[in-house]
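Can anyone check this?
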Amino acid sequence: MVLEITLLLLIVILGTVGELFLARAMKTIGEVHDFRPRALLHVFWRALGVGWMWVALLMMTAAFFSLLAMLSLENVSFVVPVTALSYAAGALGGKVFLGERVAPLRWAGVLLVCIGVTLVWIGKG
């Protein structure tokens, strides 16, 4: 059980940190207005020059391999719902790291997700 909890924490924490760093990198690049292939390729090359992007990719890769390991140990019907904790971590990280405003109704939704994860965890039996 310790391995499963460790992998779950790695999935949630590294995945969420990776997504937050990815958001930071994209905010550095700026909003994409032109979706023609040539313009998107330009955005892609600019993204590769942003340090946040590389750290984000590293974190998300580690989270992905942790997910693979977790799926080798547990049923997908347990793993996928439990990793929804990343929604709570994402809301908290968005508020703290990116300075986003999180409305009370959104926090209520996060609470519902956490209750659902708790029910799935208890039901694992």
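Reply from J.R.: I decoded it. The mean pLDDT is 95.
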